[in-house]
Amino acid sequence: MSLTKSWLPAQTVQPKPDINAAGNTRRRLEVRQLIQILLVGCAFAVATAPAATATASAATASNAPLEVHFVKHVVDRTNLVFEGTVSGAVNGSLVSRLVRLNSIDGPIYNITFDWIVSAADKSFTARTTGTWNTRTGQVVMNGTIIAGYLNRAQVHEQGHLVDPTTLTFEGFLQLMPATAG
User: Fold this and answer.
1) Fewer CB within 10 Å: N-end or C-end of the chain?
2) 109 near 134, Cβ under 8 Å?
3) Are residues 84 and 31 in the same domain?
4) CB 66: neighbour CB atoms within 10 A?
């Protein structure tokens, strides 16, 4: 019995197409059209990139922390009520008052304060808790806006005593818009 390869499919070889001058010209036109489409697409991408970048920058800027500078002095020593002004990201008047004296550890007072800022459509009340070092005059507190502009945004406060006779403090409130809502 002899083995034959009749069960194998016959090999078919496709002849290479004969590219004539007309076919070559048509292919060149197709390549040129493809290149033109790619160039137009790239030009469009470059032209719109600044707008996309500006939109992204605006979104980032709107979420960037806002710095509100303050100067305040005591108007009621018994209840630790202060009055002053704010400037920077928010401009207006300020009343801050002691809500609670949480603890005293030597010169370190752990305190809770309300910050009431009157500034038209940017008015807000923030509640902060932190420390006042009565030896150095440094104050650091953190909290949340509890009413008004940027409601529920986180707040960080840093200040220092600049005049012990009038209990005048200067510093800033840092408002975090990205945490509002």
Assistant:
1) N
2) yes
3) no
4) 20
Measured between alpha carbons, how far is 22 from 5 in angstroms, rounded to an integer?
43
User: pLDDT digits over 94-145, tens only?
Assistant: 999 999 999 999 999 999 999 999 999 999 999 999 999 999 999 999 999 9
13 occurs within a structural domain: no
pTM beyond 0.85: the answer is no
How many structural domains does the chain have? 2
Q: Give the list of residues 6+ apart from residue 140 with CB closer than 8 angstroms, or none.
A: 130, 131, 157, 158
Contacts of 41 (CB under 8 A, 6+ apart): none
Query: What gap in Å lies between CA 171 and CA 36, rounded to an integer?
Result: 59
Where do the DSSP E strands lie in 35-167? 66-76, 81-88, 92-105, 108-118, 124-133, 138-148, 154-163
Q: Are residues 41 and 79 in the same domain?
A: no
Cα–Cα dist 126/113, whole Å = 8
148 strand-pairing partners: 124
Say yes or no to pLDDT of 15 above 90: no
Kindly state the helix (H) or strand (E) to which residue 61 belongs, with its residue range.
helix 21-63
